[in-house]
Amino acid sequence: MRPRVRSLCAAALTALVALLLFAPAASAHTELESSSPKAGTRLAHTPATVRLTFSEPVDLPDVRITSDGRQLAVSRPEGGDHQGNAVDVAVPEAAGQTRLSLVWQVRDMEDGHPTSGTLSFPLATKAKDAPGTGTTVAPTPSAGVRTAWAAVRWAGYLALALYVGGLAFLALLWPQGAHDRRTRRILTLAWAGGLAASVVAPGLQGAYGAMGGLGDAFRVATYRDLLGTEVGIVAACRVLMWVLAAVVIAALLQGGERAARSPGWRVGTLAVALGLTRTTGMAGHNSEGTHPGWGEVADLVHLLGVSLWLGGLTLLLLGVLPRRVPEELSAAVSGYSTLAFVSVTAIAVAGTVLAWQIVGSVGALFHTGYGRLLLLKLAVLAAVLLIAQGSRSWVRTRLDIAVLLRGDRATVRPFVYSVTAETGLVLVVLAATSLLVTSAPGR
After folding, report:
1. Alpha-carbon distance 429 to 382, whole Å?
2. H or E element that contains 114
């Protein structure tokens, strides 16, 4: 059994490295559909304004247009028939130039992903090119910022799963675990990690959206600019939910098993868990597609399922199994087997809805970077399910023997190996999820 577990752990580590090194670069959500005048049109003189029409509604603070290094003013066109997709750019007189170049940058309203490009218009003038009027290269997002953002997102997902799933495990299956030192430490670290990730992630997201560097992620101006957008409001709500989560964890640490069995504490924990899960999901792609409502519900179910699964696995591995108390093994292990089955079923159904909602077609699974990364995630998830089936088989055939032998180490060891491998592969699934969130689906 041990060589098999080592090989599975090696496969999990290899998959994690592959995800981090070879993940597809983020592609844009909000694209420039057209301009008036049309790009490439030869103009008799510099136009007073140029109208840009995007594929999705945009906020004016999210649109940045520059020409020869100068930022130009943008405004809404007169009339309400553009539905927020269009902006007018005030263009200064390009005296003595033979070409007008406009570099545009826009940040997606839903999740802050940036995109950029260049518009070029030849000018009908016989004057020689002025300095700086050659080809203008549009800025691109920083790969380093994206990598850091994905890593912080992974840490945030892990903290969410350990916090929400761990508290649910205590409330439903193992209330006496509230006094266990390792369990209390895990939950406290999960809360601290979740709060830290929720504070750092907006800065990285803002720097990525503005196509800045890592240093820009920790500037007050980056947070201030992001907080003026829908993405920033969601990020602020997520920080607030983690602050409220401190009340829940403090009550558990003080009250122990009595708090874990209290209906009031359980209701408060459920409210905070739903708030954390929802605000985390709002930073993803679930609101895209033809039926965004279904995507939002599926995303909530998906995150809750993963949290119950991974959080329960962790407490089972690091809390219940090392104690080898027969009564706890009988109740927690068999109860978690049922909970995990329900969670995995919910993950599979919700994941199917999300995949179709976001990717949109079977062909996009194979012909886009986002789709291929999703397939890799599904492949790792399939491996996890195979290992989980082995754990369920052990519960059906060996749990009673383990209880009778009072948690004999040799009897429980195969189950520990299986749970360890399952936990490692679920961490890889979370890594794939964080990369999917920081990438944009191509359709």
Report:
1. 10
2. strand 114-122
Question: Tens digit of pLDDT for each residue in 327-340?
Answer: 777 778 778 888 88
Amino acid (one-letter) located at 192: A
- Cβ(377)–Cβ(408) below 8 Å: no
Backbone angles phi, psi at 32, to 5 degrees: -80, 120
Largest pairwise CA distance in the chain: 96
Residue 285 has pLDDT above 70, yes or no: no
In the predicted model, what is the mean pLDDT of residues 417-438? 65
Q: Tell me: the pLDDT tens digits for 364-389? A: 556 566 666 666 666 766 766 666 66
Size (the chain), residues = 443
Residue 435 CA, distance from chain mean position: 7
Q: How large is the C-alpha radius of gyration of the chain? A: 26
Q: Give the number of other Cβ atoms within 10 Å of residue 333's Cβ.
A: 23
DSSP tag of 184: H
Which structure tokens are listed for 155? 């840490």
Strand-strand pairing, 86-90 and 49-54: antiparallel
pLDDT number for residue 404: 44
- Contact (CB, 8 A) for 299 and 284: yes
Q: For residue 213, what are its two tokens?
A: 């560097």
